[in-house]
Amino acid sequence: MTDLADFHAAEPFGLPRAAKRPLLTARLLELTRHHAAQSPAYRRLLDALGVDPDQLETLEDIPFLPVRLFKQFDLRSVGEAEIRAALTSSGTSGQAPSRIYLDAPTARAQTQALARIVATVLGPRRLPALFIDAQATLGDRRAFSARAAGLRGFSVFGRDVTFALDGDLRPDWAAVTDFLERHAGQDLFLFGFTFLVWRFLEAARADGVALDLGRATLIHGGGWKQLADQALTDADFRAGLGETFGLRRVFDYYGMVEQAGSIALQCEAGRLHTSVYSEVLIRRPADFSIAQPGEAGLIEALSALPLSYPGHAVLTEDRGVLLGEDDCACGRQGTAFAVLGRLDQAEVRGCSNVL
Questions:
Q1: Do domains 5-78+267-354 and 113-253 have the same CATH topology?
Q2: Domain 5-78+267-354 indexed as CATH 3.30.470.20
Q3: Who has the most CB within 10 Å: 56, 78, 260, 313?
Q4: Which CATH code for domain 113-253?
Q5: pLDDT tens for residues 90-137?
Q6: pLDDT digits (tens, 9 = 90+) for 262-285
Q7: Which residues are CB-neighbours of 126 under 8 A, at least 6 positions away?
């Protein structure tokens, strides 16, 4: 199988299409054959679709799994003894959570990829970190939730990690003030899920709390759907953080528990970029054909990392649009795209019954 060392050798956003596409295609075709051999459920799906993994040639040819299948079935390509962790999605809106099984090589690959992607905006040093969440989130052992996984995953990029919220998810202003005093004049790392960051901002405004976060870099993601009733845009979000906290370095990311590690990261121009480890395709909901750039459709997420479960090609329930490739003003190579929201009553039917 194509060695991930070839991916690690490249800058995360440094490969143009002509170099990235052959590398990623070879790896994903090999992953398809690997999972067909190791996962009976995945093999049944390919057989039901009439797909011979040895005859596939392009990224577009690889059968995708609707993300909902991970909520309905235990999909894995390793034995139970090899499982080191099980991640779960939020399972909001009455849905069952996805359950993703990681072995040691997959967990290691995801951690390495995430570290290299995040370093492109934080740099190589670990910075004092303020997390807009509660430490109690990590103590919930009922499930290794997506939020807990995010906090644990991003904590390795910080030092003196301090939680800004109490157990009721209200700001702990004393803890925040102490943190800022300890690290006055230093560059800082802020991390949080989008809806909690916005709630933190609104609380600061309501409580008349003034914070100077001008030297901080914020990475945030997830939780946009919890702000849908406020019709908050990314531009509004960025402007609010700038006006209230003086915070200018703000980077959204697009990721999912089904493909942990291979996140798409927002650039200074406000566009999401896939890294060398990942790609997105936009498919038309009517027939799943490939949409043209600028045409809205369903986001299919592709990742080079999943070895222990067949999550290398996942059709999400998110709507998106391709904005360009290798042509962004920020200088990053790779596909640039935007997320437009989720499908109403999102559900992609038709594949579950063959499992």
A1: yes
A2: no
A3: 260
A4: 3.40.50
A5: 655 456 788 899 999 999 999 999 999 999 999 989 999 999 999 988
A6: 999 999 999 999 999 999 999 999
A7: 156, 157, 158, 159
